[in-house]
Amino acid sequence: MAENKKRARNEKGHYIADDPTTPDINEAYERDSFVKFMHGTTFSLVNIIIFLIVFAIIASVAVKAVS
Questions:
Q1: Domain range spanning residue 46?
Q2: 33 occurs within a structural domain
């Protein structure tokens, strides 16, 4: 069964071609809104995990300094 995908368009309404330098992403078709959000934002899952680890380290140092 074929998926019902919608072609991506630019601001002028023209179709967007697929970028051959990114084989894992097909820019010619629109992606799900969540995938668009995660791909376009600087807060990727890896960045969030790194932030949480650094925050936990800083918090544990602060707790040791207070006690």
A1: 42-66
A2: no
Picking from 40, 14, 15, 12, the residue whose alpha carbon sits closest to that of residue 28 is 15
pTM of the model: 0.39
Q: For residue range 9-58, what is the model confidence (pLDDT) as tens digits?
A: 888 989 989 888 988 878 888 776 656 655 655 667 777 888 899 999 99
Task: Indicate whether 10 belongs to any domain.
Answer: no
b/e map 21-55, b = 16+ CB within 10 Å: eeeeeeeeeebeeeeeeeeeeeeeeeeeeeeeeee
Closest-CA residue to 31 (of 1, 2, 7): 7
